[in-house]
Write a structure and sequence with these properties.
Layout lengths: L3 H29 L3 E10 L14 E13 L6 E19 L2 E12 L3 E10 L5 E10 L7 E9 L2 E9 L1
Antiparallel strand pairs: 1-2, 1-8, 2-3, 3-4, 4-5, 5-6, 6-7, 7-8
């Protein structure tokens, strides 16, 4: 015969197991739905604007971009650029040093699927290649609930953007 103490333990264990089952199923479903979209773009400056290196904190510059994606041509096998949209970067100098500035930048990328907004801090040296971490802080359209991060590389008049977009 089962004692009441043993029965109480069995009932509690069974109730706890049943209570946790929906949570486990929901967590697995969320993991399956956790797709990360990789977005890789090449931006080409439409207007050459550069930060002032005269040591003025608070100065700003804007860079409009044409955005392209890389595709391999079927016939030739060569990599070609296809127009993907446009965008712009607006950067504010937060620290100025000899021949370098640190800038807080907001970037807006207008693509066919929607808009992505990025934020990053760049240690900028004109005419030198620099790579910085960037964060996705918002979006519209297909990217309306986007977040994530990536890297932005500034190389002369080209900007290379690689993003991991989570939704």
């Amino acid at each position: 015969m089962i004692t009441s103490a043993v029965r109480g333990v069995v009932v509690t264990a069974l109730a706890t197991t049943l209570a946790l089952l929906p949570t486990s199923a929901q967590a697995e479903q969320k993991d399956e739905d956790n797709d990360i979209e990789k977005v890789e773009l090449v931006g080409i400056n439409r207007v050459a604007t550069w930060p002032s290196l005269d040591g003025v904190v608070g100065s700003t510059w804007t860079t409009p971009l044409n955005l392209y994606t890389r595709h391999k041509a079927k016939k030739t096998g060569k990599t070609e650029l296809r127009y993907a949209g446009d965008g712009e970067s607006e950067c504010d100098v937060v620290q100025a040093r000899a021949q370098a500035v640190t800038a807080q930048c907001t970037r807006v990328l207008r693509l066919k699927k929607g808009t992505l907004t990025l934020s990053d801090m760049v240690d900028y040296r004109p005419l030198q290649r620099v790579t910085a971490k960037t964060a996705i802080v918002g979006g519209t359209g297909h990217y309306r609930s986007a977040y994530g991060d990536g890297y932005i590389t500034l190389d002369g008049h080209r900007t290379h953007i690689v993003l991991n977009v989570d939704e």
